[in-house]
Amino acid sequence: MLDQTIKKICNTENELIKAGNIKGEMAEFGNFLSQVLQLSEPINTCYARELENMKQTAKEANQNTLDGMLSILNNIFYFSYGHDMVYKEKIKAGCFMHEILPIIQVEMETEIKELFNDLSVIPENSKYQKNIEAITSIVAKHRDFNSLLFLLYVNEWQFPSDWQKLYPQNAHELEIMINQSNITIGDFLNALVEFKIVSIKDVFLAIENPKLREDYLHIISGLEAGKKKEVANLGHIHLPVGYFNTNTMQDFVKNPKPSSPNSGTIILN
After folding, report:
1. Given a cut of 50, is residue 11 above it in pLDDT?
2. What's the per-residue H, E or C state across 201-262?
3. Is-contact 86 129, C-beta < 8 A?
4. What average pLDDT does this structure show over 99-117?
5. What is the pLDDT of residues 160-177, one digit of tens each?
6. Cα–Cα distance measured from residue 198 to residue 5, given in angstroms and rounded to the nearest whole number
7. CB within 10 Å: which end of the chain, N or C, has fewer?
8. Secondary structure (DSSP) of 61-83
């Protein structure tokens, strides 16, 4: 019962986020994408529209067409040059609101389940409405935390001086969460890779030819392994996501692998 309630609230949040992203991307992202693709005319588009068009095309597409689609999704939409420049523009167009990553979802559900159980969310409970409002508030807080991580990702993990203004309802709690979080930059980057790969696979799952579908899903799984290997080779993956809220680049140069948000010692796995 509680799991279903959490899922329903999260699905509502994600649908609102998707709708907001579409609106923002249609206003700004299409123009940016037309520049990247060196098109003569600006285009009015968004990720959701392009992915849906690709799904329809993929159903009966031949190998050449599918290869082209995979190249576009890989090299432009999800893993572009310039440190993920295109996807970061998508994030900015959506005001840093992004579907909640599973790594954040787990922490959110843990917090909710420490406070509530199945009996908390049955309509017969006298505190039902109050409990639903409290759960919705926790979801909103983690939604904003998820958004903050995407803001930091776009900003190379540096904190803009006025970042709190983006989250007026939860700024104080987010400050505490980000400073205490054990999520590392590497954790976030791997979670983002997984999210992107699921999005790419979703397009190719539409292929009606079973053998062709299996072949491309295998290729995409290989792509995921390659991208995670790239993440593993980065020099800052052991840093907590909130590291630069309390530390400077000089601190990082002196001690590039702190063991926790509150420690300066180096622990290598």
Report:
1. yes
2. HHHHCCCCCHHHHHHHHHHHHHHHHHHHHHHHCCCCCCCECCHHHHCCHHHHHHCCCEEECC
3. no
4. 94
5. 988 999 999 899 999 999
6. 24
7. C
8. --HHHHHHHHHHIIIIIIS-HHH
